[in-house]
Design a protein that fits this description.
Blueprint lengths: L2 E5 L4 H14 L4 E5 L12 E4 L5 H11 L1 E6 L5 H6 L1 H20 L5 E3 L2 E2 L23 H20 L2 E3 L1 E3 L1 E3 L12 H12 L1 E4 L7 E5 H13 L11 E2 L3 E3 L1 H11 L4 E4 L4 H6 L8 H7 L7 H11 L6
Parallel strand pairs: 1-2, 1-4, 2-3, 4-5, 5-7, 6-8, 8-12, 9-11, 10-14
Antiparallel strand pairs: 11-13
Bound molecules: serine.
Serine binds next to loops.
């Protein structure tokens, strides 16, 4: 096996994925890259290089020079940020994917991981226990790019036998690095505010249920789907993945059990409409059947770990 290249390594998922891949395959086999010129603090010890995924030539050079055989492509603009900069979001999210898929089509790399999201669903999708195959009419730029990306992954698999694997991540909760520009970010922000001031003003309304997952589960799923035998990966668009499902109110109550004085109030903004268009909960039976997925962390375990581990200096 050649080297593993993680693109978008400075982000919320990228940071923890690099550290987990280094543990699994050894530091010398993992290359962390991001558009940022210097590595973030968490990646100081990693093999780091600055790389813009939209620069196909530079990407090609890195793949050749380091003997890369697998790429995890995480560079993207998330839902809330993408609404503010639709042209760039479309360009980054799609061009980055094509540049990587083309490397696999041309047999320069063997395997690709590309994340999709619950954002592929829209207001006409059944909201509870959303099935793998269902109505998908996304209303956000981010959702449209993920939905199109899924179809392109499937096309490259069928047409060019590209081994691309994907998961529709729910909102991800972690403490190593901050999320950037998503609608589910409240479920991370809340912990920093709880620790700092015992109060939080939430930008989603109290009863907005969304699918969420503790980062360690998401990373385990990512490595697991990539390590599974090729024939087990029957879905080449992207797999539904369920963790937990909760509302801001339920999360606040779980925090209050550990921080009794904690208080929450609500001031919704444009992200409410995005959240309202997404599912409440997800059916992930196919991931369970095909590659043996099962989640570990529930709401109470997540809250405990977050309150114990967040580093307030990050915010
Ligand atoms: N967490 C992402 C977002 O809120 C969803 O994939 O944009």
């Amino acid at each position: 096996m050649g080297k593993i290249l993680v693109i978008g390594a400075a982000g919320q998922i990228g940071t923890e994925l690099v550290l987990a891949l280094e543990k699994e395959y050894g530091k010398s086999n993992v290359i962390a890259s991001d558009v940022k010129p210097e590595p973030t603090v968490a990646l100081r010890e990693s093999n780091y290089l600055s790389l813009d995924v939209m620069n196909a030539e530079a990407l090609d050079r890195v793949v050749k020079e380091y003997g890369v055989s697998e790429i995890f492509l995480l560079a993207a603009l998330l839902s809330a940020t993408a609404e503010k900069n639709p042209d760039f979001a479309w360009k980054l999210n799609m061009e980055g994917l094509f540049n990587v898929l083309n490397l696999a089509r041309d047999k320069k790399i063997e395997k690709v991981f590309w994340p999709s999201s619950i954002a592929v669903f829209g207001p006409t999708t059944p909201k509870d226990m959303t099935p793998q195959c269902t109505i998908m009419e996304p209303t956000t730029v981010y959702g449209i790019s993920k939905q199109s990306g899924e179809q392109w992954c499937n096309y490259y698999h069928r047409k060019y036998d590209v081994d691309v694997r994907s998961i529709r991540y729910p909102g991800l909760i972690s403490y190593t690095s901050l999320p950037g520009g998503g609608t589910t970010d409240y479920a991370v922000d809340i912990f920093y505010h709880a620790k700092r001031s015992n109060r939080y003003t939430c930008f989603l309304s109290e009863n907005t249920a969304l699918p969420m997952m503790y980062m360690e589960d998401a990373i385990r799923a990512t490595i697991q789907i990539m390590q599974s035998p090729k024939e087990n990966i029957k879905i080449r668009t992207s797999y539904n993945l369920a963790g937990m499902s909760f509302t801001p109110k339920l999360l606040a109550e779980a925090i209050k059990e550990r921080l009794p004085g904690f208080g929450i109030n609500y001031a919704t903004d444009f992200r409410q409409e995005i959240a309202d268009s997404w599912p409440n909960s997800i059916d992930d039976q196919d991931a369970k059947n095909d590659w043996g997925w099962s989640m570990s962390y529930d709401l109470s375990a997540t809250v405990k770990l977050m309150l114990e581990n967040i580093d307030e200096s990050l915010m």
